[in-house]
Structure formats: structure tokens, C-alpha cells
Write a structure and sequence with these properties.
Chains A, B: Keywords: DNA-binding, Transcription, Transcription regulation. The structure is a homodimer. In chain A, 50% of the residues are buried. In chain A, strand 6, helix 9 and strand 7 form a beta-alpha-beta unit. Chain A has 3 domains: 44 residues, lambda repressor-like DNA-binding domains (434 Repressor (Amino-terminal Domain)), CATH 1.10.260; 133 residues, Rossmann fold, CATH 3.40.50.2300; 133 residues, Rossmann fold. Chain A is an alpha/beta fold. In chain A, helix 1 packs across helix 3. The termini of chain A are far apart. In chain A, the strands form 3 sheets. Chain A has a 6-stranded parallel sheet, sandwiched between helices. A 4-stranded parallel sheet of chain A has the order 7-6-8-9. The interface between A and B is large, with 59 and 59 residues. Chain A binds a DNA duplex through helix 2 and helix 4.
Chain lengths: 334, 334
DNA sequence: CCAATCTGCGGTAACGTTCCCTCAAAGCTC
DNA sequence: GAGCTTTGAGGGAACGTTACCGCAGATTGG
């Protein structure tokens, strides 16, 4: 059906080997024959079949990406941008799967990617996933990099952000502003390392200043739409009539949800309650009260992860944890 | 290196063919041998190599997706969700590329996907792209489906939304509310069919009611961040001191940008100016003034596109344009 | 000037599957 | 029980590449 190097070879009157040499810019070929071959290839509308190359050379030139999903916020979308930019530049394709933070889906996607022989993976893993899958990947020598989240049991490269420090800075800032009752808001969510770390940073600042770390609004179930869950958790929390003057939310989406609940309860931000988010979603600037937040270098995380992974694919036996810094961005809610 | 069916065959004392039959649930094999083979496969930690299968059977079980990008809004992210859900269920992988609405990038991605022998593609094409690439796909018998956007020159299946009707409904609603000076806001953006259609719907409603279709804020250049461009276009527009009482924005992101500019200019929404967006991004509900908009069934678009594409891959020679309906969602800005 | 190296190219075996053909043995029909 | 179909299995080609080996002829060096 499709035209192959064999067809070109016949047309140009040379052997397959020579055609391959011409197409792949290899040495040991006369410039003139090379030119002639490339021309006939173009004329015959030849398309390289990378499947065959992959099979032979044991390199698919595809990396797999597993994310919880793209819809809850721009967070992973921006990380993905960074990954894609680096990969496309290096001629890698990107095969993607959303886990929806569902361990079974994640396991299924790992298998799908492995069967398609991706050269490596970038993963934001879900806590609770069967770590045997990751151990298998290691045994099968398929490099992978964790991004944003990670599994403590699995030793591999990690690209993350200094969550503890970010939350510490934000909390300290609130304390300096005179707040005594600061609530950490985690919203209904599945467990993950980032949340834990952010909570630790918050707690550290609170304890350093001799304050009480106030009750956090805790997950009762696992929810996709974080804005909605933040909204509902805050509504519930307000009914309890607890005294507080500031909130540090674990991410922007939850903060936006909380903001809506506070607004509907006629609580003035920041006069009555200060609010700080996390991640610095682009949308924050467009809110009526632009949200104070902790900025996370999302694009860079993705870019660096891809860089690291492809370096590993190329044989560099690195094993490191890259921790990127955060910045407190003060806007109008604090 | 990795264990192959040959290894299993040796271990189980059968031939490669028999192993293949066992693994693929094919007939003409004894239940007992099948069971034995499956067990040894599991024991040996066998991983199917789909690359080899693809090469042999000429089916990669991968579909390619080309979108402008994921970051400007949730629009494509939600479409992608629909695509992925359908594809994963049908055992297809999803290879993705962002064009950033850059024709050269789009052409590069088409080639990348074609070389990886995807079985089909779902594309939101960029106007101005060299249509030869698409003609080649057709000549090479690689099915593809346009989604959201399309190229009039290329005859293929299209999944879209009734943009004209949506804009018509929104404009009519504004007219019924008594608005006489309604501005259509397209924001700085590259040309695309959806925008044209939405503008036509707007114009039709205006003309039907004997009004003047007021100047639209026009693109001066091509911009990634639509919120930002909407914001800046509106700031510029306000300086011109033109009389208007309502705006129909071509999408929610631009509307959100415009909203910010109006707010900063102390113009009350909806009292002084009514504002309607398009698409119904989830974020709208969380704005201080939840935005009136035209709801687009994004997830369904993606799901249907995948369904259609895979049906074509399986040999059904369909050629249709599916037009999904929109709904006007009235909130607090109109 | 003869051995050693280099250049340009061809032939063929992989890579891991599936598909097609063959073939013996068993089961069926009348 | 002779002819037919069905079942279970093996052998090898093929998918489109690349890797490796070989081999003339040209070039180099002491």
C-alpha cells in the first residue's frame, strides 16, 4: 500500500541499505546518490514508518504522560505545555492518559503506555496505586519521573515544588499581618504529598509563633471539581460558627470555591477574612478581588521533567529530586 | 531482553502461533493448552509489544489529537475528556499535540502523528494551514475528524456546535431586554470559522430587528492569552467613548477579560453594560458576577468525535457534519 | 609498490508480532 | 468404513525498518 524504502530503492536503482543511509543522514554514502534518493523519496511521497524503526531499534520516540486530568484547573495544562514544548523539540511524541486520580485507571494507563513501548513516562501518581506497577517499570528498565506528586515508596526522579516553604511563607505573611486564627483549608480531596507538605509548612509557621493550628476543613470524600468542593466545604464550615480571620487554601481552585461561599455569606474579603490560594492560576488576576496566592512555576516543572526524562532515556543514570521555589504573590484578598 | 512470545513458546513447549492464539483469544486452540500458556505468560511477566502487532496488522490502536492548546480555557480540556473516555474504553491510546494555532507547528504535528502511524486524527485545525497536508492524509487513507473548527476547503466529518444559532439566541435575548446598541466582541484573535459563525448569528438578530450592528473590537494581532487580550481590547475600546449598552463576547475568556476592564473603569454590570460570554466555562459560576453565557456541550463534542472517528477507522464510510445545540444560560451579567 | 585504510554500496538477518498454509488426528455422515 | 469436516497445532513468510557483515575499488603511506 504505502510506499516503503524498498519501493524507493527499486525506483532509484539502489539497495534498501543505501536508501536508509540517505534518509537517516548516515555517513558512507556519496552525496550525489543521496540527493537522488531524497528526491525520488519526495517524488514518491514517501512517509517514514516509525513503527518499524521503533521495533528494530527498540526506541519508540514517544513518552507517556499520566495526569489526574486537565479540567479541574490550569495547573496540569500548564505543566503539560512545558513537557510538550521540550518533547516536540526533541522529536518525541506525547502519549497521554488521565487517571482522574483513580488508582485502577492509573494502572490501566500504565499498561497501555507500556504496551505501546513508550521510552519513558512522566507521572503525577495517585496515592494508593498498586506500587507493583511502578516496580515493574523499574525492573523493565523503563525510566519515569514523578512530577508534582510522588510515591514515597518508589525511588525515582522527582520534580516538585517547595510546598512546605511556600505554605510557610504564606502563613508567616498572614501572621505578620496580625492574624491569630488561621485556618488551613484542604477541601475534600484524596490524600497526596503536596497537600501534606503544604499543611506542614502551615503548621510550622503557626507553631513557631506560638499560635494554635486551627481545624482544617477535611475531606469527607474524593471529588473532581475542586471549586465546587471548596465551595461546599466552606459553606459547611461557616455553619459551625468557628472564629477565624484568615484562610490558607491548599490550591487556587479550592480558594475560589471558598471565596464564593464567603461572598454569599456576606463576609468581606479581606476585611473580615483574608484568603490565600496556592499555584497562581492565570484566572486569579481576573477575579473581582484578585487572589493572593503562592506562585508555582508550572511550565518550568513540565519542561524540566521532560528534560530530565529524556536525559535518562538517553542513558544518563541520574537520580535526583529537583525542588523548584515558590513565590508569594500578594494581591487583594489578604 | 524483554520476554517475547517465542520465549513463552519455548517454555510452554508449543509454537509461537499457538501462543499467539492463546493470548489473543482466538479459536482453534484447546482450552487446557490455552490456560497453560496464559499461566506461563503471567509467570514470565510477559508484556505484549503492540509495536510489533501494529507493524504486522497495520493498526496502531492510537489516535492523534491536535488542539490549539489547553491553557487558554477549559474548553479544549473538556473536549479532550470526552475523547479520552471514549478512546480508553475502546483500547485506543491518545497521542496529542498542541498547535498553538501556529500553522507550522500544526504541519509538524501532522507529520509526527502520521509517522507514528496513528489510525486516525481528531483536529481543531488552524485557518491558514497548508491544506496539502490534509489532502495527503485523505490520499493516504488516514481518517480524520474536525472538531469545533474546520477548513471549508477540506471535505471530511465535522463535529461542531450551532454557533450561529447560539449567538442569535443571545443577541435576541439582549434585544428583548431593550438593548439597542450591542457590540460584538471578537477580541484579538486569529480567524476561525466559529468566530465567523457567531458573528453571523449576532448580525442576523441585529438586522432582523432593524438595529445597527455595532463595531466589533477587532484583532490587531494573534494572541495566546485570550483573557488578557479581551482585557486590553476592552480598555482600548472604552477610550474611544463609543455609546453601547451590551456586549456579546465571542467566548468566555474574552468576556472575563472585558469584565475586568469594565470593572476597572467603574462601569456597572449589568446596569450600565450587559455582558454575555460563550462556551460556559466552569469558572463562570464562581465569579462575583456569574456570567451569562451560551452553553456548549464540550464533553459530548469530544465523545462524539471519538465515536465517529473510531467508527470510520473500523471501516464505516460516513461523511457527516454533526451540529450540536447550544443553550443560553442567563446569570447575573445581563 | 604492496599492505593497510577508507569509501560506497549490497545482501541479509534481525525486531516481535500476526497471518496464511499445511497437516495429522479426531469426529461426523450416510 | 470411506469420504468429509472440524479441531488443534506447527512452520514460515511478512510488516518496514535498521544493524551488521562483506566486498570491490580508490586512496594512502612508508
Amino acid at each position: 500500500m504505502a510506499v516503503t524504502i524498498k519501493d524507493i530503492a527499486k525506483e532509484a536503482g539502489v539497495s534498501k541499505s543505501t536508501v536508509s543511509r540517505a534518509l537517516n543522514n548516515k555517513p558512507r554514502i556519496d552525496e550525489k546518490t543521496k540527493k537522488r534518493i531524497l528526491e525520488t523519496a519526495k517524488k514518491m511521497n514517501y512517509r517514514h514508518n516509525k513503527l518499524a524503526t521503533s521495533l528494530r531499534s527498540n526506541k519508540s520516540m514517544v513518552v507517556g504522560v499520566i495526569f489526574p486530568g486537565f479540567t479541574t484547573s490550569h495547573f496540569y495544562a500548564e505543566i503539560f505545555n512545558g513537557i510538550e514544548d521540550y518533547c516536540v523539540n526533541e522529536e518525541y511524541g506525547v502519549l497521554i492518559g488521565s487517571s482522574d486520580s483513580d488508582t485502577e485507571k492509573e494502572e490501566k494507563i500504565i499498561q497501555l503506555l507500556e504496551e505501546r513501548k513508550v521510552d519513558g513516562m512522566i507521572i503525577a501518581p495517585t496515592i494508593g496505586v498498586n506500587i507493583d506497577y511502578y516496580k515493574h517499570l523499574q525492573k523493565d528498565n523503563i525510566p519515569f519521573v514523578f512530577i508534582d506528586k510522588y510515591l514515597p515508596e518508589i525511588k525515582t526522579d522527582i520534580i516538585k515544588v517547595n510546598n512546605t516553604d511556600g505554605a510557610y511563607k504564606a502563613t508567616n505573611y498572614l501572621i505578620e499581618k496580625g492574624h491569630k486564627k488561621i485556618v488551613f483549608m484542604s477541601g475534600p480531596e484524596y490524600p497526596c504529598m503536596s497537600i501534606k507538605e503544604r499543611y506542614q509548612g502551615y503548621k510550622k509557621a503557626i507553631l513557631n509563633n506560638g499560635l494554635e493550628f486551627s481545624k482544617l476543613i477535611k475531606a469527607e470524600k474524593y471529588v473532581f471539581n475542586q471549586r465546587k468542593s471548596g465551595y461546599e466545604a466552606m459553606k459547611k464550615f461557616l455553619k459551625k460558627d468557628i472564629n477565624f480571620s484568615a484562610i490558607l487554601a491548599v490550591n487556587d481552585s479550592i480558594a475560589i470555591g471558598a471565596m464564593r461561599a464567603l461572598r454569599e455569606a456576606n463576609i468581606k474579603i479581606p476585611d473580615e477574612v483574608a484568603l490565600i490560594g496556592f499555584n497562581d492560576d492565570d484566572i486569579l488576576k481576573y477575579l473581582q478581588k484578585p487572589l493572593t496566592t503562592v506562585k508555582v512555576p508550572k511550565y518550568q516543572m513540565g519542561f524540566k521533567a521532560a528534560e530530565l526524562l529524556i536525559s535518562k532515556i538517553k542513558g544518563n543514570d541520574i537520580n535526583e529530586t529537583i525542588v523548584l521555589d515558590t513565590d508569594l504573590v500578594v494581591r487583594n484578598t489578604s
